Amino acid sequence: MSDEDQDSKTEDPSGKKLDEAHEKGNVVNSAEVKTWVMLLGGSIIVLYMGPWMAGRLRTYLTRFIEQPHAMSVDVGGVQRILLDASLEVAVLMIMPMALLIILAVGTAILQHGWVWTAEKIKPSFSKVNPWSGLKRMVSMHQLMELIKGVLKLGVVGAAAAYSVWPHRRDIEAVMTMELAGQLVYLLDVLHGLLFTVVAIVALLAAADYFYQHWEHIKKLRMTKQEVKDEHKQQEGDPHVKGRIRSLRVQRSRERMMQAVPQADVVITNPTHYAVALKYEMESMSAPVLVAKGIDHLALRIRGIAEENGVTIVENPPLARALYAAVELDQEIRPEHYKAVADIIGYVMRLKGKRRQ
Question: Which of 88, 117, 325, 336 could form a disulfide with 25 if both were Cys (CB 3.0 to 4.6 A apart)?
Answer without folding.
Answer: 117
